[in-house]
Amino acid sequence: MATDRYDAIIVGSGPAGMGAAFSLVENKKDISILMIDKSPVSTGGMRNDCKMNFTFPIGFPEEYWTEDEANKYLDIVSDKLKPRIFPKENIKTYQERAKRLDSSLLEIKQTHLGTDGGLSLIKELLKELERRNVTLSLGEEALSIDGNNRILHTNKRDILFKSILIAPGRQGFSFLQDLMHELDIPYMDNIVDIGIRVETRLEHYPIVKDYYDPKFYFPEKVRTFCTNSGNAHVVKEKYQTKRGDIWYSVNGHAYSKDEKKDNGLVNFAMLKTVKFTEPLASGQDFAEHLGVMAAMMGGGKPLMQRVGDFRMGRRSKLSTFNDDLYDFEPSLRDCCPSDISLAMPSKILRYIWAAMKKLDTIVPGILHPSTIMYYPEIKLYANKPQYLDNHFQVKEGIFFAGDGAGTSRGITGAWASGIRASEGMDEYV
Question: Structural domains in the chain?
Answer without folding.
Answer: 4-96+112-188+384-428 (3.50.50.60), 192-379 (no CATH)
